[in-house]
Sequence to fold (84 residues):
Amino acid sequence: EQFVRMTADAALQYGCWGAPVCTPNPCQNGGACEDLFDLHQCMCLSEWTGSLCQNPTDYCNSSPCIFGNCTSLPEGFRCECDPG
Fold:
């Protein structure tokens, strides 16, 4: 913890400091770490999910292919429909 220091020869310092929760960066796969005092939150790239950006996004989870089979790809998904 750090509190206001009032002396003539020192720079003004105030507030409390938490642990450096983003050093080193706990987020994987290019995720950005946001320091929330003593907690962190990973901001994942669109193709990754999970608390540490450790899981690939399953673009087929929302069932976007109404009458076809969905294949999840790194950049999105592909629908494959039966002929006819």
Observations:
- The mean pLDDT is 86.
- Residues 1-53 form a domain with the Laminin fold (CATH 2.10.25).
- The chain has two domains: 1-53, 57-84.
